[in-house]
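Support case: adenosine monophosphate complex. Customer-provided input:
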Amino acid sequence: MTISEQQNPQADFSLVLSFEDARRVVENHAAGVATRGTETVDLLDATERVLAEEIHADRDFPPFPRATRDGYAVRSADLARLPATLNAIGEIKAGEKLVKAPVGVGPGQTVAIMTGAPVPTGADAVVMVEYTSRRGERIEIARSVAAGENIVARGAEAREGGVLLDRGARLNDAAIALAASVGKARLKVFQKPQVAILSTGDELVGLEELPGPTEIRNSNTYSLAAQVKAAGGEPVLLPIAPDERARLLELIKDGLQADLLVLTGGVSMGRYDLVEQVLAEMRAEFVFTGAKIQPGRPVVFGRVSCGAGTPAREGTSVPLLPKYFFGLPGNPVSTMVTFEIFARPMLQALAGMAPQKLKFVHAKLKSEIRVKTGLKRFLPAILSGEYEDSVVELVPWQGSGDIAATARANCYIVIPSDRERIAAGEFVAIMMRH
Ligand code: AMP
Ligand code: MG
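Agent response - structure generated as follows:
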């Protein structure tokens, strides 16, 4: 159900979903969005970009049976009885041809071999040097090996022509290594989506101004810009919108030039919370107007056809694709959390990434938590300790306006909506901060 073509500014915006349903509908909408074009960048500049081509293996990986240990290449059957003494007939190091070229390893023979070197024919295993002793060309071996031990067979990692990286992969360190391993010095990536950021509120002033006694500085534009960049987008900063219809409408229209519009503030029940009303006047389709979460309950998600309410642009016969928007609550922590849990997947899709599920990890709770049931909570928390002995605890805070407390947090504890009390020592879900 959606409130579509809503034109009544007095509408009751009551499409409140559970967290899971809200997340799912965002993912569903995200699956249908179009990406921008592509560009080609140097491998060194491709980190964290999204791949717009498939990367194929240009030969078998490994291209030869590769020794994974320093030692001796042997025929495993020769080691049935121990200790065994074999005759060394040569040496092979990584990257080099045979030093004393044996045609192959015959019964009773062995070849000294280094990690990364090609295993010679005849041999089917490598014995680690630690289990051998050498006297001249006589090699005594104290341990048996199974066929295949300490060898990666040719093509075991990938076959020539096989897909190593899919279109839509985010290029992390391992993906960059894979691209390098097939000689791709330049990669085709998706252009970054542009995300317009529009902070609303009469009380807000820009960083270049001195706030009056009841004014505050606009911080959401900057936290959102940081989150947009981290998620692979290009932030487009709009001027602060006052709580005034005409100017807000104008700035929303500017914002809809971008690939995604993220608004903050003005989505609560207050008299001057005009964001939904202005969007409704533009015949926006609201997918949800709230989620049963804390912080961030009044979060809004929807889309609007850019041409709607304004005359069609000259020469455009094809209807413009609708643009998605998020109306995030203005409280700074609500803004951060709702971006992370709802806007990020949409941005990732616009950036060309394959759809990602939100995954929580678990950590041991340091001290008891008591909350009211009914809302899924994402509360700023500190994960501390070390190695396997990590523990997590809530940061004491003054509610969702408390930026200072949130800056001390490195994660959020996620509390299911039906839990009233979580005891110290229990494992809780946490969402790491990006
Ligand atoms: P609103 O969602 O507009 O009702 O705002 C909720 C609270 O967040 C109010 O205390 C606002 O002053 C504060 N707030 C709204 N927008 C911003 C912003 N861009 N930066 C910092 N605080 C904000
Ligand atoms: Mg406001």
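The CA atoms of residues 193 and 351 lie 6 Å apart.

Case will auto-close in a few days if no follow-up is received.
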